[in-house]
From TrEMBL:
Ranges for domain ABM: 8-97
GO molecular-function term, one example from the UniProt record: monooxygenase activity
Name of the protein this chain belongs to: Putative monooxygenase YcnE
EC identifiers of the protein: 1.-.-.-
Keywords for this protein: Monooxygenase, Oxidoreductase
Enzyme type, top EC level: oxidoreductase
Annotated source species: Methanobrevibacter curvatus
Family annotation (PANTHER family): ABM DOMAIN-CONTAINING PROTEIN, QUINOL MONOOXYGENASE YGIN-RELATED
């Protein structure tokens, strides 16, 4: 990693429609497994809010913005992005942070 690149932390908040938790777990299974193998991925984890079963956050850590951008163009991410829209109660809320 060059001195000009920062590691990136991504928090992707998802608010699901009622009763869609199992659907989310199913469509993220392949995404998580394959993303963890991607070049530049440090960690990729899905967490369920302890007080709201319909609220989740995907916590991602990447070596650089370039690695994150490459992830968003890969087939398993595009497949997830196409599928998740139908089970969300609200738009994805995605925050990126330089580490």
């Amino acid at each position: 990693m060059s001195g000009s690149e920062n590691m990136i932390l991504v928090l992707a908040y998802m608010k699901l429609k009622e009763g869609k938790k199992v659907d989310l777990l199913e469509i993220t299974k392949e995404l998580i497994k394959k993303t963890r193998l991607e070049n530049g991925n440090i960690s990729y984890n899905l967490f369920n809010d302890s007080e709201d079963e319909n609220s989740f956050v995907m916590v991602e850590q990447w070596e650089s913005k370039d690695h994150l951008n490459a992830h968003m163009e890969i087939e398993h991410f595009k497949k997830f992005a196409d599928a998740v829209g139908s089970i969300l109660a609200e738009d994805l809320d995605i925050k990126e942070y330089d580490i």
